[in-house]
């Protein structure tokens, strides 16, 4: 009996000890990284006083630790949890080559889905031309297109019956002006041929866009005309300038108007002469055309022109080149405007591009 009593007391003491420790927390277990990965993020954050100066075209982004601003990694660069890829350029960190650690990766482009159009599958980023009027691009399942036909305005004021026609061997329809009093077998002289390269065309990975030349800054003697274009190797919008001369100021053109007429649409000097600018003289003589004048309320403006390059030789022997407006034809009408009116370009006005250079 004595040994039985001792056994009961021992069991009771064990139960009492277990009941007292039932509310105690289990010992902490420390997680161990089996691959011993490098810890790139460290807290608290320690950032430089000023953010880094990133190279041109590289995004300044918050790092993967959400601590500091850093220059984003580019395609082919090594990336990790702290050094993030430039997601503005569609890059992500590809860890597939670092299995099973997944510690370091390489910045790669996201693979987009292709596109389907009229039963044809196009890959992501592929440019294609579904017809002669459009140029399209597949971007991650979406198709974007631009017109290859210039959106020209019909002739106004001087054209009583404008119409759009389909010409042989041409994709885009063209505006022509019917002149009922004069039957012409060929295209009327007021019809302007529009080239797709003067508006929007695809050039490598750039949609080339060029505005029309602005009106000449002066109504007589030398002025300036400007336009905006990204037709360059950097595909950057830049302002281009050319010299223009609608008519000479020191010549009375009204003396050359024929009897019974009120307008002279084209004036041309009898002799060729060299252009001069700031003491520099053109290397060869020219005989340009000028717009004429009217004795009534009409004005004469260019409706067909092109841009030529003129080389000048300066007194010190230096050579320089200028783009110059070369007038081919003018017409006289009642729609006159002040070339110095800053609001004039807000209105649609004989917006015909010049002849292809």
From TrEMBL:
- Please indicate which superkingdom the organism of origin belongs to: Eukaryota
Signal peptide location: 1-19
Q: May I have one GO cellular component term?
A: extracellular matrix
BP terms from Gene Ontology: cell adhesion; positive regulation of cell differentiation; signal transduction
What keywords are annotated for this sequence in UniProt?
Answer: Disulfide bond, Secreted, Signal
Q: Residue ranges of the VWFC domain?
A: 113-178
Ranges for domain IGFBP N-terminal: 37-110
* Tagged with keyword GTP-binding: no
Report the SMART domains cross-referenced here: CT (SM00041), IB (SM00121), TSP1 (SM00209), VWC (SM00214)
| Residue ranges of domain CTCK in the record | 263-337
- The main location is secreted
GO MF entry, a single one:
heparin binding
SUPFAM superfamilies in UniProt: Growth factor receptor domain, TSP-1 type 1 repeat
**What Pfam families does the database record attribute to this sequence?**
Cys_knot (PF00007), IGFBP (PF00219), TSP1_CCN (PF19035), VWC (PF00093)
Note whether Secreted occurs among the keywords.
Answer: yes
**InterPro entries associated with the record:** CCN, Cys_knot_C, Glyco_hormone_CN, Growth_fac_rcpt_cys_sf, IGFBP-like, IGFBP_CNN, TSP1_CCN, TSP1_rpt
Q: Where in the cell is it found?
A: Secreted
- Family in the record: Belongs to the CCN family.
The record's listing under PANTHER family reads: CCN FAMILY MEMBER 4, CONNECTIVE TISSUE GROWTH FACTOR-RELATED
This one is known as Uncharacterized protein
Annotated organism of origin: Conger conger
